[in-house]
Design brief:
Strand content: 5-15%
Largest sheet: 7 strands, mixed
Strand order of the largest sheet: 1-9-8-5-4-2-3
Radius of gyration: 21 Å
Number of domains: 2
Order of helices and strands: HHEHEHEHEHEEEEEHHHHEEHHHHEH
Shape: globular
Structural class: alpha/beta
Length: 384
Amino acid sequence: MSNIKNKKISFFIPKITKEDKRKMLEIFNSTILTNGPNTEKFEKAFEKYTKSKYATAVSNATSALHLSLEALDIGKNDEVIVPNMTFLATANSVLMAGATPILADVDLNDHNISIDSIKNNLTKKTKAIIPVHLAGKACKMNDIMKIAKKNNLFIIEDCAHAIGTKYKKQHVGTFGDAACFSFYPTKNITTLEGGMIISKSKKISEITKITRNHGMNRTLKQRYTSGYPWDYDIEKPGYNYRMDEIRAVLGLNQLKRIRKINSERQKSFKYYCQQLSKINGIDVPDTNDLNDNACHLFRISIDETEFGMNRNQVFTKLSEKNISTSVHYKPLSLFTIFKKKSKSYSSLENSLKIYDETLSLPFYTGISKNNQNIVIDALKSLKN
């Protein structure tokens, strides 16, 4: 395939266009630089794209999760079920709200939260479930909604990887009480740092729009449009979780091309699958319903017996060939803080097994077939 040797292959390269930069520079001519008209436009565009009723732009996905939990009055003495295999922010937000994360195992086939494990972790203190659509693959939302309805639980969808992901032709995030998206630089679209809350609840929307802005009941625009600008009230504590106008206009501009972005990623994802599935000892993700998968990450599983090397050895060998890889994720149960602050009422063996075997390959919008071939050839050479 590729005859280029020792070329550095980055794990991720952000894609910010000249048009993105031009739009961002225009903001400096504005008198409102945060929580202004472009933030509102971004929210409206996101509502339209996801077909959600309400959207609240915030500083990042962690703050989105935190505000969502607080808007649902989840706090001390409450338990919230989260998958053991997720980025630590999912569980950190539960701690920030004063509640206890309950770690559920994941399925071996799609690495998303296990329905059986959710059931095994239910207690009288359970208040909510946070399913994570890992790597852009949708969780089994019908089953999760049945559990939530039967047990009177809230659902907060963690959609950090899942802009463009659909479940039964409906955008993820529109099933639960609230959902949280990330626009970190590695995500399918970026605002550098940033997040979004979507909800079908007007109450959640109103609360999060206030609590993201210190709890103030009037925005900057409202305060300087009528009445005295200092005349506002605070009914409950809030935070400085606003999104600024530069990031909002970047997100708005990138959102316009999200379908093209995800289409490119799906093609690159499919190519990896086609080529790597030929290598004994490497398992690739399934390509079923690929058009409904945001394809945020490309993760392979390495069978040490079949391949002849374990995951860590493959990581090291690829690094020696200037190919950057990573692991998504170290299970929460292995971190000191969650050993102390979380609980689990069931086995976590699947997530621990997946952690030992999986490796995330270089994957991003616009990755060239040549760069993919370098990665593919390197893995083939290790097998030989």
